[in-house]
Amino acid sequence: GSPWGMTVFIGHGAFKAMGAQVGYSFMTGIAFIIVCFSGLSSLVLSIFPAEVLNPIILYVGLVVCVEALEITPPRHWPAFLVALVPGFFNWAQQVASDFAAAVCEQGFLVDGSLVEAGSNAACAVSARSNEAWTLRPTLVAVRTFGKGYILTSIVWAAMVVYIADRKFGMAAAWSVIAAALSSCGLVHAEVVFLPWHPEGDAAYHWEIVGGYLLTAGFLLVIELAQRFNKGPNQEETVAAKEVDEEDVSTRNPSLTDNSERV
Hints:
Elements: H1 5-8, H2 12-17, H3 22-38, H4 40-47, H5 50-71, H6 77-105, E1 108-110, E2 113-115, H7 137-146, H8 149-164, H9 168-183, H10 205-227, H11 234-251, H12 254-261
Antiparallel strand pairs: 1-2
Helix pairs in contact: 6-7, 6-8, 8-9, 9-10
């Protein structure tokens, strides 16, 4: 929903390679203002169906992923993949709800005769209700990890990045942040609430908070072990970082020129 999407990341490297500078960013913002405030967006959507626009969004998503990997050191690639997982959970939850609702709307067979939904028969549990997602533990996990997936992706990615860099203390700090966000419904819940007064389908929020805190404790133990020279050698981490930076420059030599132009 951000009007600055084109300015921030989509094709940014390609635009700079073609000579686009700060003026392009201003013109992009002005173009979005004209489209949004004039109602042209509704006109475009009425002419072009979503099935036509979705492939463009898919292509843009693929380009963004490719550019992200080009500038990301190989040791951080697992963080990139982990950050995608909450989004998949959210997508799976929406698709599953639509599927179950569509099945219920088709009606039911009673003694071989079709009874339409809403007349004398209905699903025992609404496909879109919170209760439906508590029928199986796997369903609880899908719904829980899909809620607030953007913040969850940021936190999970940060944790994996610091783990890859063997900065376990920072990874533990991010795990504590995740616990704090979970305690009030900013992630893994539909609504925001006070930690001592959960609302909605947040019945499992203390279990999630406890899981993040246990993870933080485990990472702190590794951090202490590393500081007492019982963990990985810090020199190995520095050497690996230098190799990764050299690899990134080799795969995308234009990054140096772009950074100088910025």
